[in-house]
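User: quick one, fold this
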Amino acid sequence: MHENRRYVKLRRIWVGLACALLWAPVAKAELVTAAQGPAALTVGRDGLPRVAYAEGCVLHVAVRSAAGWHDETAPSCLPLAANALVVDGIAVDGHGRTSVLVQDETGTAILLVRTAAAGWRTDLLARAGNAGAVLGSAGLTLDARGLPVVAYALRRASHATFLRLVRVGARGGFVTTAITRGGFPASDAPPAAVPVLVRGRIHVVEAFGSQGIAWEPAGRTWSGQYLFANTAGLNGGPVFATAFRGATWTASTLLEPQFGESDVLLTLENASENTTIVFPHARVAALTLVDGRPEVAANDEVDIADTVDVAALVGDEEGNSAELDGAIEGYAAAVNGVRHILLRTQSGLEWFASPTRPSVQVMLDADATGHLRGRVGGVPGGTVELYREQPYAGRVLVGTVPLAADGSFAAQDTPPTSPTLYRAVYRDPLTGLPYSSLTRTPLG
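Assistant:
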């Protein structure tokens, strides 16, 4: 891993019912849906988690209550290509009204789907339009009135970009504001953008190229402050942002193939800017605050033949982290500090709740003979599931082995003869969380 000294401060730019649902221990996952499509998670003031997920061209919103998960179908089929929907975000206001931001993976259109008096309504917020123009990853939040706000950037074929903010106007329609003009900044890839509520005002964070800028209103124009700048790399979008007492936290991904890395960056803007690398080989999936401190979720993609295997990661600014089985699609903290986790596994989308940040450490080593050994730290006992994972073959349970008194375990598989990764999974008896360790170098 290379040093954070690559990130430097740069000059300023000028441009013309919270406890209604209390956490209860869950001894196993709760399956939200068997669908495997993209998803997003949020927790409302009522304490209820909500999941938006795409299935073909259909958007669903699932809500958990004391009776379990209730699934609602938003518009029967969104006017976007089937199986190409990207769920950029979900937000719920104090009255339980839900807004979901959706776009297609080709960057041609952005839609906002939200609950209305007659059910659900869908609004087209932006379309790429011109040949060669592409919309970047967009972001959603709620303003001080509880109304949805969307930020996005358009990149033209000339590499000129245009950052826009969309709000609900006084008459109920959408009003679009130009944050940048003149095609600034130029970017090889479409910038990612997200709005964030800071002391009652909407700011916008934009990640482009190998840089990030925080924009805030300044009279009739917008002022931009560089958050970080890198000598190389490319933003891997999306970008996430949240604020606490005037301090803004941003999480983004910087792709650096020349170093074999995809850095997950965490930036604090509070009078000055400070950026750290949370994970050196992952892509950011979520950002949340607990008592004003950030926690980041990401996915580490491990190459195996011409496919990838995924390990979910959760960590904080101090370098504390844990690995979970599957891919993490959502991570959000309720006002009472309970963490809500959405994992995409072979079963579908699974939801978990934990009173603390996931922290159990699982370690696994494997060699070419098929010998497996490892350790689960700080647990009183239990068992570990050991899996063999190969391209196009799914994963196979090698065995379930007990933990020794010191948390260690061992097993023997047949020697692998084709590219093989191994994964150890320990399921927490209180939360059901599947802590894991995926080997990073294929054998066979």
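User: anything notable?
Assistant: The domain at 362-438 is CATH 2.60.40 (Immunoglobulin-like).
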